[in-house]
Write a structure and sequence with these properties.
The chain is 47% helix and 20% strand. By secondary structure, the chain is of the alpha/beta class. The radius of gyration is 14 Å and the shape is globular.
Length: 134
Amino acid sequence: MQLDFSTFPLVWMRRDSAASGPDDALFAQFEALLARRQAFVILSEEGLDEDGHDHPQEERKRAALWMKQNKAAIRAYIQGMVLVEPSAAKRLAGKAFAIMFGKFWGYPLHFGTSRDDALDIAQHLLKAWLPPQK
Protein backbone atom coordinates (compact mmCIF):
# COMPACT_ATOMS: atom_id res chain seq x y z
CA MET A 1 0.00 0.00 0.00
CA GLN A 2 1.01 3.57 -0.61
CA LEU A 3 -0.34 6.68 1.07
CA ASP A 4 -0.67 10.02 -0.65
CA PHE A 5 -1.23 12.75 1.91
CA SER A 6 -0.58 15.70 -0.41
CA THR A 7 -4.27 16.64 0.00
CA PHE A 8 -4.28 16.22 3.82
CA PRO A 9 -6.68 15.84 5.64
CA LEU A 10 -7.78 13.64 2.76
CA VAL A 11 -5.32 10.74 2.58
CA TRP A 12 -5.50 8.52 -0.49
CA MET A 13 -4.49 4.87 -0.14
CA ARG A 14 -3.48 2.96 -3.21
CA ARG A 15 -2.36 -0.61 -3.71
CA ASP A 16 1.29 -1.01 -4.53
CA SER A 17 1.67 -4.04 -6.76
CA ALA A 18 5.38 -4.25 -5.93
CA ALA A 19 4.79 -4.54 -2.17
CA SER A 20 3.67 -7.86 -0.73
CA GLY A 21 2.42 -6.55 2.60
CA PRO A 22 2.68 -3.73 5.10
CA ASP A 23 6.26 -2.61 5.42
CA ASP A 24 8.13 -0.26 7.72
CA ALA A 25 7.61 2.64 5.31
CA LEU A 26 3.81 2.30 5.43
CA PHE A 27 3.76 2.15 9.23
CA ALA A 28 6.11 5.16 9.33
CA GLN A 29 3.74 7.10 7.04
CA PHE A 30 0.80 6.32 9.31
CA GLU A 31 2.83 7.35 12.37
CA ALA A 32 3.73 10.65 10.70
CA LEU A 33 0.05 11.27 9.95
CA LEU A 34 -0.95 10.51 13.54
CA ALA A 35 1.86 12.73 14.87
CA ARG A 36 0.16 15.73 13.22
CA ARG A 37 -2.55 15.42 15.87
CA GLN A 38 -5.19 16.46 13.33
CA ALA A 39 -8.23 14.66 12.02
CA PHE A 40 -7.99 12.96 8.65
CA VAL A 41 -9.91 10.53 6.46
CA ILE A 42 -8.46 7.69 4.41
CA LEU A 43 -9.93 7.24 0.92
CA SER A 44 -9.43 4.61 -1.76
CA GLU A 45 -10.76 4.40 -5.28
CA GLU A 46 -9.98 0.70 -5.51
CA GLY A 47 -13.24 -0.45 -4.00
CA LEU A 48 -13.93 -3.53 -1.95
CA ASP A 49 -11.35 -6.27 -2.50
CA GLU A 50 -13.23 -8.99 -4.39
CA ASP A 51 -10.88 -11.85 -3.60
CA GLY A 52 -10.89 -11.17 0.13
CA HIS A 53 -7.10 -10.70 -0.01
CA ASP A 54 -6.24 -12.98 2.88
CA HIS A 55 -3.16 -11.60 4.60
CA PRO A 56 -0.57 -14.03 6.02
CA GLN A 57 -0.76 -14.57 9.78
CA GLU A 58 2.57 -12.81 10.43
CA GLU A 59 1.33 -9.76 8.54
CA ARG A 60 -1.93 -9.73 10.52
CA LYS A 61 0.00 -10.03 13.81
CA ARG A 62 2.26 -7.15 12.91
CA ALA A 63 -0.68 -4.92 11.96
CA ALA A 64 -2.56 -5.84 15.14
CA LEU A 65 0.47 -5.06 17.31
CA TRP A 66 0.96 -1.71 15.57
CA MET A 67 -2.73 -0.93 16.00
CA LYS A 68 -2.59 -1.70 19.73
CA GLN A 69 0.49 0.49 20.19
CA ASN A 70 -1.23 3.39 18.41
CA LYS A 71 -4.84 2.76 19.44
CA ALA A 72 -5.49 6.08 21.19
CA ALA A 73 -4.13 8.18 18.31
CA ILE A 74 -5.92 6.06 15.70
CA ARG A 75 -9.25 6.55 17.46
CA ALA A 76 -8.60 10.27 18.02
CA TYR A 77 -7.47 11.31 14.56
CA ILE A 78 -8.63 8.84 11.88
CA GLN A 79 -12.22 9.82 11.29
CA GLY A 80 -12.97 7.01 8.88
CA MET A 81 -12.09 5.25 5.68
CA VAL A 82 -14.16 5.70 2.53
CA LEU A 83 -13.95 3.24 -0.34
CA VAL A 84 -15.28 4.17 -3.76
CA GLU A 85 -17.43 1.22 -4.75
CA PRO A 86 -19.84 1.75 -7.66
CA SER A 87 -21.39 -1.71 -7.34
CA ALA A 88 -24.49 -1.71 -5.14
CA ALA A 89 -24.12 -5.48 -4.61
CA LYS A 90 -20.55 -5.07 -3.35
CA ARG A 91 -21.54 -2.17 -1.08
CA LEU A 92 -24.29 -4.32 0.40
CA ALA A 93 -21.92 -7.27 0.84
CA GLY A 94 -19.39 -4.93 2.47
CA LYS A 95 -21.72 -3.86 5.29
CA ALA A 96 -20.88 -6.84 7.51
CA PHE A 97 -17.18 -6.39 6.81
CA ALA A 98 -17.47 -2.68 7.67
CA ILE A 99 -18.84 -3.52 11.12
CA MET A 100 -15.94 -5.86 11.88
CA PHE A 101 -13.45 -3.38 10.40
CA GLY A 102 -14.74 -0.59 12.65
CA LYS A 103 -14.58 -2.72 15.77
CA PHE A 104 -11.01 -3.78 15.05
CA TRP A 105 -9.49 -0.52 13.83
CA GLY A 106 -11.56 1.90 15.89
CA TYR A 107 -12.84 4.00 13.01
CA PRO A 108 -15.72 3.45 10.58
CA LEU A 109 -15.57 2.14 7.04
CA HIS A 110 -17.91 3.83 4.57
CA PHE A 111 -18.67 3.22 0.91
CA GLY A 112 -19.16 5.94 -1.68
CA THR A 113 -20.77 5.32 -5.04
CA SER A 114 -18.28 7.60 -6.84
CA ARG A 115 -15.20 9.72 -6.13
CA ASP A 116 -17.41 12.79 -5.56
CA ASP A 117 -19.65 10.84 -3.19
CA ALA A 118 -16.60 9.58 -1.26
CA LEU A 119 -15.26 13.14 -0.98
CA ASP A 120 -18.66 14.33 0.34
CA ILE A 121 -18.64 11.56 2.98
CA ALA A 122 -15.06 12.45 3.95
CA GLN A 123 -15.89 16.14 4.32
CA HIS A 124 -18.88 15.27 6.51
CA LEU A 125 -16.67 13.11 8.74
CA LEU A 126 -14.11 15.90 9.08
CA LYS A 127 -16.72 18.52 9.94
CA ALA A 128 -17.94 16.35 12.80
CA TRP A 129 -14.44 16.15 14.36
CA LEU A 130 -13.81 17.93 17.64
CA PRO A 131 -10.20 18.15 18.81
CA PRO A 132 -9.49 15.97 21.85
CA GLN A 133 -9.41 17.77 25.19
CA LYS A 134 -5.99 18.11 26.80
